[in-house]
């Protein structure tokens, strides 16, 4: 009876050993298979990669399209709080929550018909009024020349 028990115990050990050696090798076989599959997938993916340069070539045209749409207008610049921010001080038609520090700009093109004078006011208001609190947009580099031109074009329609 004791011998039978020992035999049973031994066979249990043997089968556990057998299992523990066969399991890793099964995994190893699995891993090898996966690696092969990955390689095959890689090879299959390459033709698609090769098609990418055509995609990239198509992009400049797309970018040009969105740039066209996004062209910044003088009105955009005048209302942009990081650029003209003219609404902080001036009432301008179409602008929300305007300030009232400067005169409303409605009809400014009749008051200042000379575009050079209008530009001078936007470029550096200190020239006409040394005590002005209007930002000297040009000398302070808040807007570049092109941006100031656009803003002047916009306000000369008011
Ligand atoms: C910080 C306030 C402030 C901001 C911002 C401001 N202005 Fe002025 N602006 C004034 C004041 C004040 C005057 C009155 C004249 C003066 O003191 O220079 C004025 C005058 C003007 C005038 C002359 C108006 C008239 O009827 O004689 C124009 C044009 C003008 N601003 C355009 C602009 C434009 C365009 C912007 C945005 C790019 C702008 N201003 C931003 C304060 C401001």
Present the secondary structure layout.
Blueprint: H1 2-50, H2 52-69, H3 74-79, H4 108-111, H5 115-123, H6 145-155
Helix pairs in contact: 5-6
The structure holds heme C (HEC).
The site of heme C has 25 residues, from helix 4, helix 5 and helix 6.
- Overall geometry comes to elongated
Measured between the Cα atoms of the first and last residue, the distance is 112 Å
> How many individual β-strands?
0
Instruction: Round the Cα radius of gyration to an integer and report it.
Output: 38 Å
CATH superfamily of the domain at 74-155: Cytochrome c-like domain
The CATH class label of the domain at 74-155 is Mainly Alpha
**Helicity range of the residues?**
55-70%
Q: Quote the CATH topology of the domain at 74-155.
A: Cytochrome Bc1 Complex, Chain D, domain 2
Q: Could you give a short account of the major beta sheet?
A: none
Mean pLDDT: 78
Named once each, the bound ligands are: heme C
Low-confidence region ranges: 12-26
Strand content: under 5%
Total helices: the number is 6
Based on secondary structure, the structural category is mainly alpha
CATH architecture annotation of the domain at 74-155:
Orthogonal Bundle
- What is the succession of H and E elements? HHHHHH
